[in-house]
Design brief:
By secondary structure, the chain is an alpha/beta fold. The protein is built from three helices and five strands. It is 38% helix and 23% strand. Strand 1, helix 1 and strand 2 form a beta-alpha-beta unit. The longest helix is centred in the first third of the chain and has 22 residues, at 18-39. The chain starts with 5 loop residues before the first strand and ends with a strand.
Length: 119
């Protein structure tokens, strides 16, 4: 039996306004789940960051730290975001996240940009 690709979704919105944040998170969740379905992948989890800027230092992003810890435990194979800015708006931080995940056997995909890394 073929192993299913396990996906973890990262959803992030900088706005802390509840109505704006809820709608943005819902759109990201829907696009990620539809993308995963089209690929034949299984969504096994998600992390939501509400009111968190994409410029926030990695050490202050608890959800991203947890994602890397879950990657270490081999809980998923792909991190999926609706677009690359959901991970980070800082190129150095983005590369650090992708590298940390790749070292743990996880590749990164974006609904908008496609495959962002390989393992």
């Amino acid at each position: 039996m073929e192993k299913s690709i396990r996906v973890w979704c990262l959803l992030r919105v900088a706005s802390a306004l509840q109505s704006d944040a809820e709608a943005a998170i819902a759109r990201q969740r829907e696009s990620c789940r539809e993308f995963a379905d089209r690929q034949g992948w299984e969504v096994v989890g998600e992390s939501c960051e509400v009111g968190v800027s994409g410029n926030t230092a990695l050490v202050n992003r608890d959800k991203l730290i947890t994602i890397v810890e879950n990657a270490e435990r081999r809980k998923f194979d792909v991190l999926l975001v609706s677009n690359v800015t959901r991970m980070s708006r800082n190129a150095v931080d983005f590369i650090s996240i992708v590298d940390a995940l790749a070292q743990r056997g996880v590749c990164v995909w974006s609904v908008s940009e496609g495959q962002l890394s390989r393992v």
